[in-house]
Specification:
Number of strands: 10
Helix content: 10-25%
Shape: globular
Strand order of the largest sheet: 1-3-4-5-2-7-10-9-8-6
Order of helices and strands: HEHHEEEEEHHHEEEE
Strand content: 25-35%
Radius of gyration: 18 Å
Number of helices: 6
Length: 285
């Protein structure tokens, strides 16, 4: 079997140095749609080096592109076809604000392997710390079609009850036709997001947007709309990828305020609000 759960879980964690500069942060922000309008003071904090604040979701690409998804597939006990891989969900915990430039040690391991019957789910955990201590923890849930069925632990259910009542805020964010091409320059070069032939092999009519791009666009919308643009207020951010986004579509982002948290649901406006992100929570100060 291509996935040896026991071997994957027993493997030694992998550690390596990562670093990033202001340019990397700016490129990431542009890749998730920042900078429109280009001279808007609220956008300049994402694009101008002298005012730069780091959106916490930058942690998913800092120094290594997409370590949770691509890096996890090279761990001991894991040998799967990239065309069968989808990003199932993402959880991010911030231990303190991310500096605009830095060097840190990232330690990655397979934290769990779940048997969902027709698929396997790998949980790739990455802990990042610099000289001053822990910075963030990323959990990437990697969904591998056709690799389940060995009788393993199904794992916990991540499904939440839908938010009650009408959303407190609803905003729409357009996805550029070239959004995936720009976003992939932050390090995630999976051909699923650029190569039409590869996308067809994976079962899609055309390349799809990176789930983590939608993830970043959504967090930016929440921060800008409900948190006063203050990125340092974010404490954690969790989502389940419920559907695909195609470049050129519009994200409809619904938000429900709670006590120290925001519930979020994201859909594709042009496809009758087809779900994109579900079970999404931003915890904040």
């Amino acid at each position: 079997m291509p996935i040896d759960a026991a071997k994957a879980l027993a493997a030694e964690p992998r550690s390596g140095e990562i670093s990033w500069e202001r340019r990397d942060v700016q490129l990431y922000h542009l890749g998730i749609g920042a900078g429109r309008p280009a001279t808007d003071p609220d956008e300049l904090r994402y694009t101008l080096e002298t005012r730069l604040h780091v959106l916490p979701s930058f942690a998913t690409v800092a120094g290594a592109g997409s370590p949770g998804v691509i890096g996890g597939l090279s761990m001991p006990g894991i040998d799967v076809d990239l065309a069968k891989v989808l990003h199932g969900g993402q959880s991010l915990t911030l231990h303190r604000p991310i500096p605009a430039a830095g060097t840190a040690i990232a330690t990655g391991r397979i934290a769990a392997v779940y048997d969902k019957g027709k698929a396997a789910v790998l949980v790739m955990r990455t802990d990042v710390a610099d000289a001053d201590g822990p910075l963030w923890t990323n959990d990437a849930q990697i969904f591998v079609r056709g690799e389940g069925g060995w009788g393993g632990d199904r794992g916990p259910s991540t499904r939440l009850d839908p938010p009650a009542g009408e959303p407190d805020r609803t905003v729409e964010r357009p996805v550029r036709e070239d959004q995936a091409l720009l976003y992939r320059l932050s390090g995630d070069y999976n051909p699923l997001h650029a190569d039409p032939e590869f996308a067809k092999l994976a079962g899609f009519d055309r390349p799809i947007l990176h789930g983590l791009c939608t993830y970043g666009m959504t967090l930016k919308a929440v921060v800008d709309t409900l948190l006063g643009g203050d990125v340092s207020r974010v404490r954690s951010y969790t989502t389940r990828f419920a559907g695909v986004v195609y470049p050129g579509e519009t994200l409809r982002i619904r938000m429900w305020r709670g006590d120290g948290r925001v519930r979020v649901a994201v859909s594709a406006a042009e496809r009758e609000d087809a779900p994109v992100l579900a079970d999404t929570i931003v915890e904040h100060l």
